[in-house]
Amino acid sequence: MTAVIVATAALSLPALSAPASAAAPHASSRAVQYVDCSATGSRQTGSVTAPWQSLDRVNRLELRTGSQIRLRRSTRCTGTLAPDGSGAPGRPMVIGAYGTGAKPVIDGGGNPETLLLKNTQWVEASDLSITNSGNPGGNKRGVRVQLEDYGTGTHYRLTGLDIHDIRGDDTKGTTGSAGILFSVTGSAKPTRFDDVEVSGNTVTGVDREGIYFGSTWNNRPVHGDYDPDGPAYLPSTRVVVRGNTLKDLAGDGIVMTATDGALVEHNRLDGFQRRSAGYNAGMWPWNADNTLFQYNEVSGGETTRDGMAYDVDEGTFGTVFQYNVSHDNAGGFFLVCTATGTLSDAVIRYNVSRDDHYRGIETCSGSFDDVRAHNNTVYIGEGVSQTVVNENTDNRHGLTLTNNIVVKEGTGTATFALRDSTGVSLSHNTLVNVTGAPADPGGSTADPLLTDRTGALPGGLRLRQGSPAIGAGTPVPGVERDLYGNAVTDPPNVGAYAGRGVAGRVGPPVPVP
Predict the structure, then answer these.
(1) What is the pLDDT of residue 504?
(2) What is the pTM of this model?
(3) Could you tell me the CA-to-CA distances from 20 to 16, 17, 59, 255, 432 in Å, in that order?
(4) CATH of the domain spanning 26-432
(5) 213: β partners
(6) How does pLDDT run across 468-492, given as a tens digit for each residue?
(7) Does residue 208 have a cis peptide bond before it, meaning omega lies within 30 degrees of 0?
(8) Which of 199, 234, 341, 366 has CA 20 to 30 A from 107's CA?
(9) CB-based contacts of 385: which residues, under 8 Å, 6+ apart?
């Protein structure tokens, strides 16, 4: 994902209102600030009987430590909510709803920010509907959590937010347009996030990014944007992105940059790279260490400017993609891309791909070492063509393919496009109706007898009783279970299914010319 991003120029428009009032803030002793933008009374104190009637009134307050901001359900507030306050251990600042009915709506009204949490910590936001479709094509975000020359900010929770129709521009990064943006900015004081959880949110109809983590404190000589005079590398830690549903995105789905040990799991993405002029993928790290992506599902990627479900990108080390599902993506299954940077120590294991077009694995430009793809199952069905592994340069690609199943069935083609002596090696794979493999790839070309080749995923694409792929693999250390929860045997099966053969529904044998 290191190709040049093409930004959409916004039209010249009148200046939009600032997030907070120019009036001097004043301290509030209330523990809970109530907001009802549909209320009409003349008295506004922030109490439940006399709530604030605009976001601007809340933004003027200097909130006490551990305050709560509660928006009445079924109300709609227009503008930016940018509270002035923080929480503390055991006393977080809480932003949420009260009353009965639908989630309260914050409509950014075309402003750059809708919910802005800047230079704050120990903050939790939940149960809100957030939208910002005004001024389409302008730079804007649904939720932005920003630290600027702050130091380490701790404890952030975004849960149960419905973020939709954020019609931003085609930019990304620390100031780009996104549904949820965690951004570290500035260069005067080393700054990072610690202890972040983004869980159970929906992100729909967003231009450009779905969920994005970015930082100006990202400089180290492993990526092409390295600036030796810029802020040094300082990754955010204890970051979890879990159980989110993302749909209809202009650009990328979930992107982790400048993090160490991030966990991205149980997320569902359907429809990305739909309106961007740049290069975008479903879920991927950039300039990050020890990122674990697991139990995610990605589909509906459009175009071949990347359009892949997953990506191991430049400046990443210790990345693991395991137990993920990919299907029906125009760009394919995986991108492994270094461009002018480096990457190493990446594992792609026990994942399932069905009917992904264009590329199984695209190596992009640049060189890399120690990328290990093992025990994945790739099914390429009727009318789908895929280059299983594509090398478009003669640079070294230290890629090993072990214990994988690739089955091509029906019209269309499946082929390898490898250069000579670049470092790609194969062992113990099952390749059915696949052309262009190395002269001695090892493994088998026998039908592995996959169950439910067109059924629901990940339940399908297991091994039927009597499959020649059962016990036909070679041991690979580092994993104990498969995508389905089965223990990995010794010797292991070939493919993503490690259990005994099943008697599940299976179509006719795969025709082999």
Answers:
(1) 59
(2) 0.94
(3) 12, 8, 5, 29, 62
(4) 2.160.20
(5) 182, 256
(6) 999 999 999 999 999 999 999 999 9
(7) yes
(8) 199
(9) 357, 358, 412, 413, 414
